[in-house]
Design goal:
238 residues; alpha/beta
Length: 238
C-alpha cells in the first residue's frame, strides 16, 4: 500500500508489536519514543497517519497532538492506558481522530488504521484563500443558508469565509448534509463516517459534533444545521 505511519510510544515492546503488524500489512513505519521526537518526525516525514501514545516523557501525547494539528490534518489515533472519559474527550478536543485504550486488540487497531486512511485518502491538498469558491450552480456545491459545502474543493464556507475543519468534521458535516432527510444514531455515524468495522466509543461522535457546531453554527447552543434527535442521534437541518 505504501502508506507511511508514524508510531510514537515510549514503550519499546508496544512500538515493536505495532511496527511488526503494520509492516505485515504493507505500511512503511517510522518510530519515535517520546513526544518531542514524535513532533520532529511528523514535521520531517509528513506521515499518512500517526499512532500517538499519551503518557510519554519530555512532551506528552496531548501536547504533541496539539503541536502536530497546528500544521497538519494527518489522522491521529491516540493510544493510552487511561480509560477515563475525560481523557478521551481531551484527546479528541485537541484534534485526535480516534482513541484506543491499552491493552488493545491488534486486529481492531489495524481496522481503525485502515478506516482512518480510507477517509483521508480522498482529501486533496489544502486550498489557499486565493482560490475563489465555485459558483452556486456547480453540482458539487451544497448551499444551506449562509453555509456552503464544496465537495470538489473539500472545503466549507460560512458567509463566504473559509472554515478550518478537520477531516473528520468535514466528513461528518458532508455526510449529514447529503442525507438531510434521515436521522442517524451515533453507532451508525461511527460506521458510516468513521468507517469502523468494530464498535467504537460513541463519545467520539458527540465531541466531534460539539466542535463542528462551534465552527458552523451562529449559536452552538441552538444549532440550525447539526440537530440532536433526543434519544436517537443526529440529523441535518436543511
Amino acid at each position: 500500500m505504501g502508506r507511511k505511519i508514524l508510531v510514537v510510544d515510549d514503550e519499546m515492546n508496544i512500538v515493536n508489536i505495532l511496527a511488526f503488524n503494520l509492516k505485515k500489512e504493507g505500511y512503511e513505519v517510522i518510530t519515535a519514543f517520546d513526544g518531542a521526537e514524535g513532533i520532529k518526525k511528523a514535521y520531517e516525514q509528513e506521515p499518512d497517519l500517526i499512532l500517538l501514545d499519551v503518557m510519554m516523557p519530555i512532551i506528552d501525547g496531548y501536547e504533541a497532538c496539539r503541536k502536530i494539528r497546528e500544521r497538519f490534518q494527518t489522522p491521529i489515533i491516540m493510544l493510552t492506558a487511561k480509560a477515563e472519559e475525560v481523557d478521551k474527550v481531551l484527546g479528541l478536543e485537541l484534534g485526535a481522530d480516534d482513541y484506543v485504550t491499552k491493552p488493545f486488540s491488534v486486529r481492531e487497531l489495524m481496522a481503525r488504521v485502515k478506516a482512518n486512511l480510507r477517509r483521508s485518502a480522498a482529501v486533496m491538498p489544502a486550498v489557499t484563500e486565493e482560490v475563489k469558491p465555485a459558483e452556486p450552480e456547480n453540482p458539487n456545491i451544497m448551499k444551506f443558508g449562509t453555509l456552503t459545502i464544496d465537495t470538489s474543493l473539500y472545503e466549507v464556507r460560512k458567509s463566504g469565509e473559509l472554515i478550518d475543519l478537520t477531516l473528520r468534521e468535514y466528513e461528518l458535516l458532508k455526510f449529514l448534509a447529503e442525507n438531510n432527510t434521515q436521522v442517524f444514531s451515533r453507532e451508525a455515524l461511527l460506521e458510516k463516517v468513521w468507517g469502523y468495522e468494530f464498535p467504537g466509543d460513541v463519545r467520539t461522535v458527540d465531541v466531534t459534533v460539539r466542535r463542528l457546531r462551534e465552527k458552523v453554527e451562529d449559536n452552538p447552543a441552538k444549532p440550525a444545521y447539526i440537530i440532536t434527535k433526543r434519544g436517537v442521534g443526529y440529523h441535518f437541518g436543511a
